[in-house]
């Protein structure tokens, strides 16, 4: 059970640059309402526990030279909450819930309401980690409602809200007939931009309305029991009826649901992230490919608009997640053998520069080069305002406080710097070369980024492009059906995977009769 952690004496002295000093924000995301911080309390708790932060009114001191020092990591150090993020509805709470989600879903990081004192000399000193110690929120993100909280504890279990939920304890048996026992008939929403050209990113940056969504229907097969859970969601293995692609369905626990508007905003954020990634990849001639997972919102009943019937469908990703940055002060330490770390840091910088300081994408974590669940920072407070981790301009300041340009930033000729941001005199690259055509896989539930020149194409479906995983399924799921049109009996070939990938029912007439009837 959760237990209270008492502040240590003399906590003000923790700001000294000693081998045991720490900053509690290392690896967290801060929110708009945690906008005023000063004192940091370090608690000596056992491995796996969290530490507390107490904060007092002050101001962000971006213009003080040396205010933010180099972040250093030393052997054996750890932080609490690696791979996790905080939740929005955490009023008057003080416990961090241990989260077993593979994708680092949700944790509660808590702060006392104060002001960030950026202008106070020596307020934040060097971030150092020493063997055996931990800091709060390594790799976490904080949210807009992490206010009025101070004491942080760790819950060794899931608490009373677990209810009657039981969890899978065996490895997934994807190919075992009947293993996916639940069948859901759902309506699905997804961003429908799959072909990107020179104007696509500009249009999407200009207005949310330019990031349009489409709706379709699917049959989803899933396990009746989840295999993992976080504070608000449980994850179950899933597949569609006609595909071998592996998915995860995430459902909200009782009382933790979001309305459809939040899902729509999340999907638009991920669509914009993909648009940035498509251009980033093209500018680097696909030398450093990055991609974002496809998020699809599923509605299963009439209560979906209120959140109770909303599910999310995402590709199942197997492997160890690596966190590269977040929306506060965490940046993964550079190392010669970690090329993708430099790619990730340059991508965040690129999104700021390419948007002329309108956006910045961070909280980048991935398995291999596949990023998932990013955060976006916006200059306009009305853009993506439902996002819990959008810190607006403060998010820009946090990023540039820790960012160091690398060879990829220089290859992209990025000009903006933290010093420019602090002075208010930003410079940007003025001309961006024409990009090579890039597309996303035409499977609406996949949408993996692929080069147009190397994408798989079929003469049967000439306007569609396919990734390596989806391409073979066009033929492997082909069957012969009788055409139901009037006239002599005849058969035609139909790909179950193709029609499912578009969210369409399979036709009962051959292509010739469809054309005569004016059907697509």
UniProtKB/TrEMBL annotation:
Stretches with biased composition (Polar residues): 74-93
GO biological process: myosin II filament disassembly; response to differentiation-inducing factor 1
Keyword Transport listed: no
Keywords linked to the UniProt accession: ATP-binding, Kinase, Nucleotide-binding, Serine/threonine-protein kinase, Transferase
DNA-binding found in the keyword field: no
Residue span of region Disordered: 1-23, 74-96
MF-aspect GO terms: ATP binding; protein serine/threonine kinase activity
Domain of life: Eukaryota
Stretches assigned to the Alpha-type protein kinase domain: 182-417
Protein name: Alpha-type protein kinase domain-containing protein
Origin species: Scytalidium lignicola (Hyphomycete)
